[in-house]
Amino acid sequence: MNDLAPLLAPEGRALLDEVRGTAPADELAVATRLRREHPAELVSAALGQARLRQRAAAKFGAEDAERMFFTPNGVEQSTRASVAAYRAERLRALGVTSVADLCCGIGGDAIALARAGIRVLAVDRDPLTAAAARANADALGLAGLIDVREADVTEVETASYDAVFVDPARRGGRGRIFDPEAYSPPLSWAVRAALRAPHAALKVAPGIPHEAVPAEAEAEWISDGGDVKEAVLWFGTAPGAVRATLLPGPRSLLGRGLPDPEVRSVGRYLYEPDGAVIRAHLVAEAAEELDGGLIDPTIAYVTADALRATPYATAYEITDRLPFNVKKLKALLREREVGILTVKKRGSAVEPEELRRKALPKPQGPNSVTVFLTRVAGAPTMLLGRPAGLT
After folding, report:
1. Rounded CA gap, 242 and 238, in Å?
2. Distances (CA, A) of 290 to 269, 286, 305
3. Which end of the chain is more exposed for a tag (fewer CB within 10 A), N or C?
4. Using N-to-C axis directions, what is the helix angle for 81-93 and 108-115, rounded to 10°?
5. What is the reported pTM?
């Protein structure tokens, strides 16, 4: 599909309505039937768009996804709607009323900004992607706030806008790009564009090295439902600040420059910090809230004797501590009639699925156990426990 125009025409829109929700197993039969009355290429494009809409529902919600238009890369690379909405609200709270959205993709961020009442210039150099962004603004009734332009973002004048948002391409022909200077456009260009604006937000990979964060920027790592989604470099807010934000919420943990927590013996509870907390290097801040310490100086597991409520970590009650030994674990699981085994690891080379297969070859029994493959004071260790509920 190299042109959206046929799908935007009345015949294309009617086909999209007809193929909505088509299951993969039914595609051949549906295509065969529809090709008797419609061009084969249009039928294929409609079915392809239906598949993309089904995939996009996880990011945009079914109601929006069924009205929007996507490209394969657009579905893969677009921001989850909840994250885009949070970011748009931060900009709105800063007093931003207009944003130049550079590298807008299929328009996910522009949509969130417009829904926050912000006027958006959405720019992308790929013709099909820009066409999708334009079609999405129209489909969701936001065309009055979103002006889509097909152009090279490095040639766009942004001086008249309150803020700049840049989402550089972080994928190439060989997959993900980890070097920020290999982004398209490079991070250094995006930073220069940000420094020229009153406010700016640059979306970057969550694995960005902390030393690559400019001194002028606030760095924020965002997770949604426990999954780390992105990092954002903010300009015009709090230079040098670091925060981890958890959605839904939002709940934000601010860095205070604390030293690493002390290492202590394994207590009754083990806390697994949220991935955004770990990426932001804020485990010490989370541990202070819990009055806890680390089980090992290189492992981001916090242990404590008391159970405390926190949005920044998941608590487990530890029942057993064993040296790494598959046979002993297998015997213990059999003795306790374990039928469900959850394996987590940090600081271990053992693959969870491999251990699950060896330790519980024939799951049976009503009980469940979580085993942590980790290191305690440098020694390979298995910690057994269960999620700790607060009463």
Report:
1. 9
2. 10, 7, 9
3. C
4. 50
5. 0.91
